[in-house]
Amino acid sequence: MEFSVSIRNLVHNYGKTKALRGIDLDLPSNCTIGLIGPDGVGKSTLLSLIVGVKKIQNGSVQVLGRDISKGSVRDELSHDIAFMPQGLGHNLYPTLSIYENIDFHARLYGLRGKYKHQRIVQLMQATNLASFSDRPAGKLSGGMKQKLSLCCALVHSPKLLVLDEPTTGVDPLSRQQFWELVENIRSNSGDMTVLVSTAYIDEAEQFEYLVAMDDGQVLVAEKTADVLADGGYSTLEEKYISLLPPEKQTNPDRIQKSPLQIDLKEPLVMEAKDLTKKFGNFTAVNDVDFEIHKGEIFGFLGANGCGKSTTMKMLTGLVEPTSGTAYLLGHEIDPNDISTRKRVGYMSQSFSLYEELTVHENLLLHARLYEMGSKEGKKAIEQALRDYQLSEVANTKPSDLPLGIRQRLQLAAAILHSPDVLILDEPTSGVDPAARDMFWEQLIHLSRDKQMTIFVSTHFMNEAERCDRISLMNQGEVLAMGTPQELIDSKGAENLEQAFIQYLIEAQASNEKDSVAHSEDFEMIAAPEKPKKSFNPYGAFSLIQTFAIREGKELLRDKIRLFFAVFGPIFLMVGASLGISFDIHDIKFSVLDQDRTTESRALVERFEGSPYFINIPEISNISQVQEVIKAGKARLVINISEGFGQQLLRGERPEINFVIDGAVPFFASNIRGYIEGILNDYVQERLSTLPIDLSLPFNIEPRYVYNQDFKSIYSITPGMIMMALMMVPAVMTALGVVREKEIGSIMNLYGSPASKLEFLIGKQLPYVTVSFVSFFVMVALAYFVLGVPIRGNLFAMALGALLMIFASTSFGLLVSCFMSSQVAAIFATAILGLIPSLNYSGLLFPVSNLTGAAAIVARAFPTSWYQLISIGAFTKGLSFSHFILPYLALMGFTTVYLTVASLFLKKQEK
């Protein structure tokens, strides 16, 4: 038998957590294979290792007969493997249209010209996306994103299609259409193997082959029909539960709830009237109405993004409604109504307790937040630990607990203060069936025995059937409301899922613009024959161009990023050039003239006539000298002692006391220089009045070669252009790469034939282009607005700027390889770039004056080299021949940064 995947002794760990425990597995070819199990059992890890996006730690994996651990093999097999990662639309780019997303993936795998266009059109027609080809992926519904992701995965006609939980969180109709579409495409392709992981165990019944997993191990790997026949189980979920260890097994049939007895005289616990919430132009919840009675379990059933979580947050006061009213426990929702909020327990969709605290400490914190007394809190914590079987893990941190126990901990915390209302937002998402059943046993106990009103959202049909009443939601609107059986009967359906599908079909039919064809309309046209002489994807920088075009489109459509990329350097240059000045004028000084002679007045007049000083009223006694300096009224006080004039006329050396404000040493040093200059002139003038000739045989007159006006703006502006070209492009490029890591689209690199260097250069080029345009705008503003002359060769300076931008963007790419969040990327790039750019570039201190480590740092960073070009072209009149060494240095920095970045950027996860 030919196997598509063959695995031997596969082990994979995340620190101390064992994800896969010595798996041996053979998967057949040319069939559909289902991989089932709850979150955390190792499904995603196994699939990632099979497609080569994770690095194999121990064991071997053969895919399509070849060893996937070898880099060269992975690149070759990438044309035969397609991977759709977990998470809705993680292989998509939100600002790109449907056509552009598929086109990017097609280019990534070397499709070009007429064949590429035909393939894209056929896939869009098969999925009924052709009429929405210009719509951005970020504005698609969950079902449409699902189909677009599939188109991107199928565009290069793979032999092995791997789908990691592709239907999690989408509505039943979209799930049904998706699987019909996959089967239609597979039957038309002839030799495609489809490997799918799913959290919906009932979905796996349609697959030909089944692999069940738990705790990193394979429980069974056989034909699905054989698995169901073994033991005579009616459903796959029952069979899966029977395969689990005894401590994880449970019987769903034992979960019984008594009929709800509603007392109509009791006031409503929760009520919503025309409840609406809009985020900008997007309506998340639209005119929702419902009433919930005491002790009732009321369910919200719908896909991710349908408005369930937003509605719940409005009911808890976490989100303010745009319009409509909501009542909780007889009071209109008010975020400041603390007394009402204390009567509510809330459990969010994601884990919201503190990972740093133990189970007991989390419960203790929760008790204190709700102002429970020490005895009351202690008793409630002990009771919660017993009821929810948490006693044995009381001193364990949540990060070390399985998902099911973490969910029990959250529920224990939510009901610790005995609330009247319990709001649960998808509390069992990703939990195994046994843990889910145990969770629902607790909910039924709280509802029936403690008369607690429970409002729960879910996208599991079997959970919805356990609610007293449910509300079916789609795109922010309530489609129907009633008991599960009432909804089933209203559509004459066999079960709740079929009833929900009928409601969705009716809702979509009423909105033709967003309707999608029923699966019967799907028809996969055979792919056109590939041209014999296709374009070589590895030649003429085609993959670099592919990444550059996509990044450029994203940048142009992201107005905020584009604004900072273009105008960030401009604002930095203009603001800093106008705000930073080393020109010291109008220094306030005061005089304590105790001599009052012609000679003393002549000296004071010298200071008054200087453009650097401004005289303020004189002081009258010595005690005022320190007061004037301390108060900041003057930066200089001239104390002329009594007898100054007589001593000067007698040819003696009279003393003058100059008191300088030394709080800022730079200014104090300049003031001292000004004083020495004025005294020099004063002495020369006094000597010229004597009857003897004391003049020198030569005159010394200082002249500034390049900056005759001695204006600091002529040096600050070129320096700020250097700073702008270093900081902004580096930060923007680092964000561009880290952003892909955060949204998950970096998977497109992991599974593609593109090299890391091609990816990095492609990401870099759009930011180089934008920054180069920004450079010319800065030069124009410097010349026409700030009045800074360009005495050298503009084109020589532009070439230097281009090389500097390549160096700074390469630096940003290097930093991004070590960062996993955009916030960290901003801070790391800014700090690592700012210090050497400011202190060691020649902006504040000449590089030639630096010694030791400071001199090494200066020469080991590109800013000091570009500063030579910027200053030289602006003020010194230099041209190409003078910049040969800086040009070579900047090219060297680009080469080194890109090379190191390509070494540290991983094309496989650990």
Structure in words:
InterPro entries: AAA+_ATPase, ABC2_perm_RbbA, ABC2_TM, ABC2_TM_bact-type, ABC_transporter-like_ATP-bd, ABC_transporter-like_CS, P-loop_NTPase. Residues 672-908 form the ABC transmembrane type-2 domain. This protein is an alpha/beta fold and 910 residues long. It folds into 4 domains: 3-248, Rossmann fold (3-Layer(aba) Sandwich); 270-343 and 419-514, Rossmann fold, CATH 3.40.50.300; 542-577 and 711-904, no CATH class; 587-688, 3-Layer(aba) Sandwich (abc type-2 transporter like fold), CATH 3.40.1710. The protein is built from 31 helices and 24 strands. Strands 6-7-8-3-9-10 form a 6-stranded mixed beta sheet, sandwiched between helices. A 6-stranded mixed beta sheet has the order 16-17-18-13-19-20, sandwiched between helices. Strands 2-1-4-5 form a 4-stranded antiparallel beta sheet, with helices on one face. Helix 3 runs parallel beside helix 5, helix 16 crosses helix 17 and helix 19 packs across helix 26 (756-784). It is elongated and about 130 Å long. Residues 513-528 and 530-535 have low confidence and may be disordered.
